[in-house]
Structures are given as structure tokens and as C-alpha cells.
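Example record used in the benchmark description.
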Amino acid sequence: MICRKTGKSTKESLSLISSSQLSLASDDEVKALKILLAYQFGKGADATLNGEVKIRRSSSTGRVREVYLGDSLIGTVRATDGFFVPTLRGAELLVKNVPFPNFRVVVQEEVKDFVAKGRSVFCKHVVYADPEIRPGEEVFIVDKEGGLVAMGRAVVSGSTMNSKKTGVAVKVRKGIKNK
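Model output (C-alpha cells):
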């Protein structure tokens, strides 16, 4: 569709609008975001925000909603609880900075492709899960070599994933094959 005002496609118009609302994060905002990442994902996660950090704020509340590193979206700040929800790009950076096994769920090779397409992870397919994972936390699904396969929200605790053989372990948000 073509926008009547600009004469450009709707997609181009939306990208112009959205990029104009981005602003460079202040030092205090970057510090607060680093503290949030360190609190949520542990030591090393704050190194994810090294570089030019940009933010997009909520138009109604003025709170930070989206976090960019350079020009790529690395995550959003969830409005309900203020936690960081990484995008695939953000998950890739966090996997590099957060030491193994923190927040990781290792899956069997046979199901890796299904999970990478966005399918849920079942307990019977979990090779290993960080026992410190709690239900509702953001987790990284990795293969046996430690490569990112997907990211999602834990449905059960890490120790339950390791011991249980039935039920959903992780509800996948985004897999690497459904970008």
C-alpha cells in the first residue's frame, strides 16, 4: 500500500516514523539497563550493552520499552514486570556474555531443528537444564555445542526439566529458523 502523505510504501513510512522516535540513551539509563541485565541474567550480562545504546520510550508512560545496540533491536522491557525480554540478536549477545550453564537449556540433536522453527521444548528432549532456572524466566535453548537454537520462557523449573519426562519445559518465543 502507498501512503497518501509521503507517497512511499506503508512499510517505508512506518520505518521512518519508528526510527525518528529512537533516542540515544543517557549514561544513567545505560547504567540502569546494565543493572537490570545483571540482576536478571547474572554476572557478565551487563557487558551486552557495550556500544552505542539507543532506546524507544512508551508514548503514554515515558518508560523505556525497546533497547537497541547500534541499529539492531536487542530486547524490550516488559511493561508488566519491568524485566528484559531479549530478541534473537539480544539472546546471541547474552549467550556470549553469560557463563555456561546459566539460563541455558540443552536439547537433543534430534529435536534441534523443530525447536529452531519455534516449537516448544518438552522435558523428555532436555539433555541438561540449569537447575537454577525458575518458571517464567527467559532462557536460552542451545545445542550440545552451546550454539543458540532458540529463546523462550521456562514453564517449569530447571531441576524439573532435568528429572521429569513429560510436559512442556520451555515455551519458545523465537527460533533461529523463524527470523
